[in-house]
Amino acid sequence: MQLDHSFCVPTDPDTVWKLFLDLGRVAPCMPGAVLDTLDGDSFSGRVKVKVGAVQMSYRGEGTVTRDEAGRSMVLDLSGSETRGAGTASATVTAHLTADPAGTRVRVRTELDITGRPAQFGRGIMTEVGDRIVGQFATRLEELLRRPVRDPAPDAGARTAGGQDLAPTSRAGAEPEAIDLGAAALPVLLRKAAAPAAAVLLAFVVIRAFGRRSGR
To answer: Were 133 and a residue from 5, 33, 173, 204 both cysteine, which residue would form a disulfide, CB within 3.0 to 4.6 Å?
Structure first.
């Protein structure tokens, strides 16, 4: 499944690119995600999402490849449900270009997912993606407006590779689940409406034939 998204932040491309190079600072901008380890171009982390009463947690790892000249980066990600048989893998390509409003970030995701989320289909996954990217863009803009601060030398804030993580992305922290109910519920209702309408139609037809037979 291929998903395409785009957003703009009111900051010049050089500044945004420098921030993108620092995964420890960017990772907390992703809703529902926590970065556990960061060692060079490899990392691991967790993601938690919920749709109504259903909650899913994933644990996974990934690598990043950067193209400095083209201001683009590719993330290869893979993970699995911590309490289930579902798996997810993705190749995410982010490309930064100059925009009259600042920097345009285009994101293309090649997604392969199994388990419960697979039943949602492309429509709901696109809506969910729009929701997540929108929140990510808002948090990224807020981060760009803050001054850069060196994290305190706290052992709990260091990864296996010895690099400091942002305070909100420390290893061991429990991710706050992103609630996809607002995005998923309308699609789920539409999916449920079709069989419900068919049952209602069949009931009406049966009653109509029953009345004619009675006459």
So the answer is: 5
